[in-house]
């Protein structure tokens, strides 16, 4: 009996250790990414398509100041966007480029902790090294804010960052979801930088994207209304209609973008026409998922 207890105890310890190893926060190859030279001008386009300002500016603040403070109410509690301005104390001004890559590529903070996936790093992880470095260079040019970041207000057990490692093991994949076909550029813009699926794809009870219902529409995280589906089963617009909407915010039936989508249009309107056309082609090539 004693021997059985000892074996059981060692087995439990080994299982726990294995679980902690599998779900540990990961980091990028520091020497590789630190040597990449970012271009701030090119990063401005990445910033625009990524709609960084729509989450990280204060609700009543200057859109160029990434002071944080915007709240997002979900079934897991309330997430509060942090200050990601270049401020050395309250922002990310004391980060290195490696820290920034770790955040976007691995969802890992500079002090080695998991970020909650309300920060869409699961999409940003598909970005190229160049675009990540360009975005980092551009953010460094923006005004600083000394506004402290506020804590999230999450319910137990979703407030435990260690549990995010389990979420990552279940859902964090860097491969693109849809086949490239003839829309490789559009797929990159939509699935990586634009992170469209984060709002337009339904989620599991644990918050992972249901890839088998990609872009099929989802309940709004706030519990008010629904984010529409973009698959051909729901969206009947032509590619030209979609590209025009991404430029102007105007729909074929003379309506206009509102809510969070208005902020997205602010970004996509700054893209070159060929990029909007590429996103439209990608959307038209989606499977007709209900």
Written description of the protein model:
The structure is a single chain. About 5% of the residues have low confidence. With 290 residues, this protein is mostly helical. Helix 5 crosses helix 7. The chain has 13 helices and 5 strands. The longest helix is centred in the first third of the chain and has 21 residues. The strands form 2 sheets. It has a 3-stranded antiparallel β-sheet with strand order 1-2-3, with no helix packed on it. The chain is 42% helix and 5% strand. The relative contact order is 0.13.
Concise description?
It contains 13 helices and five strands. The protein is mainly alpha-helical and about 290 residues long.
Count the strands? 5
What's the end-to-end separation, in Å? 56 Å
- What is the helix tally? 13
Helix and strand content put the structural class at: mainly alpha
Mean pLDDT over the full residue set: 87
**What is the chain-wise order of helices and strands?**
HHHHEEHHHEHHHEEHHH
List the helices and strands and how they pair.
Elements: H1 2-22, H2 30-34, H3 40-49, H4 52-56, E1 71-74, E2 77-80, H5 97-106, H6 121-124, H7 129-139, E3 153-154, H8 162-171, H9 184-193, H10 197-200, E4 218-219, E5 226-227, H11 239-248, H12 260-268, H13 273-284
Antiparallel strand pairs: 1-2, 2-3, 4-5
Helix pairs in contact: 3-7, 3-12, 5-7, 9-13, 11-12, 11-13
């Amino acid at each position: 009996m004693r021997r059985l207890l000892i074996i059981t105890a060692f087995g439990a310890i080994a299982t726990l250790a294995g679980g902690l190893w599998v779900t540990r926060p990961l980091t990028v190859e520091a020497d590789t990414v630190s040597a990449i030279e970012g271009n701030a001008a090119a990063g401005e386009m990445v910033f625009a398509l990524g709609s960084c300002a729509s989450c990280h500016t204060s609700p009543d603040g200057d859109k160029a100041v990434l002071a944080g403070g915007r709240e997002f109410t979900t079934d897991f509690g309330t997430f509060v966007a942090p200050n990601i301005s270049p401020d050395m104390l309250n922002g990310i001004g004391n980060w290195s480029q490696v820290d920034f890559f770790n955040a976007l590529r691995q969802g890992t903070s500079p002090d080695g902790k998991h970020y909650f996936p309300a920060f869409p790093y699961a999409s940003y992880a598909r970005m190229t090294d160049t675009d990540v470095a360009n975005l980092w260079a551009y953010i460094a040019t923006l005004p600083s804010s000394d506004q402290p970041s506020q804590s999230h207000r999450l319910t137990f057990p979703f407030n435990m960052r260690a549990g995010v490692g389990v979420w990552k093991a279940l859902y964090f994949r860097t491969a693109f979801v849809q086949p490239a076909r003839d829309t490789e550029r559009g797929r990159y813009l939509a699935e990586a930088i634009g992170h469209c699926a984060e709002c337009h794809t339904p989620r599991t009870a644990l918050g992972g994207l249901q890839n088998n219902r990609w872009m099929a529409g989802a309940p709004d995280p706030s519990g008010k209304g629904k984010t529409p589906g973009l698959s051909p089963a729901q969206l009947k617009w032509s590619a030209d209609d979609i590209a025009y909407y991404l430029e102007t915010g105007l729909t074929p039936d003379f309506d206009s973008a509102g809510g969070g989508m208005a902020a997205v249009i602010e970004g996509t309107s700054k893209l070159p026409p060929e990029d909007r056309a590429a996103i439209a082609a990608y959307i038209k090539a989606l499977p007709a998922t209900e």
